[in-house]
DNA sequence: TTTATATATTTGTCACACTAACTATTGGTA
DNA sequence: TACCAATAGTTAGTGTGACAAATATATAAA
């Protein structure tokens, strides 16, 4: 990449990511989902893993630890998640969904899939592969040390 | 898009956009640039347009008005930007770079181009076209009313 | 055992995004 | 003229993101 024009990828990327989050958040709100987009991501990952520590969960969702602490705080207040003490390690928590959290996830999952489809109109499965390849390449280019995933 | 897997585009997009911003911000910091990534975007657009109102600038950088108000506040504090009263419309400001702002932009521009190159390693000009096409399609799919740009 | 180091999580600070509500001003219209 | 809707910008509240520093606990080394 030598031409100045290519540096616009960062602007396009940021603009589109914000639009995707904004659109989803509006739909979440008009549907009274009672969670934000980021809170949903955390709930979804908890629903797909029986028990997780905050560190494990942070690595799954690619958020840093302070951010995750605060999201978990909110989800606990809303009654969807519980922090249980780790039996061997008193520094750590085991996170799991409450009953209310489980039913929240199962009721929201199809609606959110539907919301997510909107962005992909006029695009093909092949586009998705290209999109994923390019995004992953960018991510790895900038991901100095930890080659996770 | 019917398969559930495709809904991961939102996760990939968000993750990569955050990584791109984080990487740039780290480089900005280690180079003592004295501005954030978003402040740079605003400075750059001001340098490419003689005079802008806040509303015009907000449309250029795709940020909302409260966000732009605060970024301008910070850039004024740092002495890079000035708000001048609009001669005809007392509700509005005319924004322009100070001398300090002009020299800041010209000194940072080449360094930032260099930083931006890193993400595009292993990718081709054709990849850029595809990337841009897909991001723009997503953006337009979600951009209900205002078909700006 | 004591010390040193590493790990898990929290707290504090600053910046940004979005919403809603608010002030001031403008321009059109009854 | 008086009213009213639209526009420019600000302020406040909540959530998120990055980073640094602090706390508590665990583990390894001396």
Automatic annotation (TrEMBL), chains A, B:
Residues 6-140 form the HTH marR-type domain. InterPro entries: HTH_MarR-typ, WH-like_DNA-bd_sf, WH_DNA-bd_sf. Keywords: DNA-binding, Transcription, Transcription regulation. GO terms for molecular function: DNA binding; DNA-binding transcription factor activity. It comes from the Bacteria. SUPFAM superfamilies: Winged helix' DNA-binding domain. This is DNA-binding MarR family transcriptional regulator.
């Amino acid at each position: 990449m030598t031409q100045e024009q290519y540096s616009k990828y960062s602007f396009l990327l940021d603009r589109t990511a914000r639009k995707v989050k904004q659109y989803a958040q509006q739909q979440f709100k008009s549907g009274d989902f009672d969670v934000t987009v980021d809170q949903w991501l955390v709930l979804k990952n908890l629903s797909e893993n029986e028990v997780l520590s905050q560190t494990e969960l942070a690595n799954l969702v690619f958020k840093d630890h302070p951010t995750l602490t605060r999201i978990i705080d909110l989800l606990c207040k809303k009654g969807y998640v519980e922090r249980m003490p780790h039996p061997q390690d008193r520094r750590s928590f085991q996170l799991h969904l409450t009953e209310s959290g489980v039913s929240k996830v199962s009721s929201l999952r199809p609606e959110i899939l539907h919301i997510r489809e909107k962005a992909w109109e006029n695009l093909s499965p092949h586009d998705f592969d290209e999109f994923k390849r390019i995004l992953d390449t960018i991510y790895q280019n900038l991901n100095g040390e930890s080659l996770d995933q």
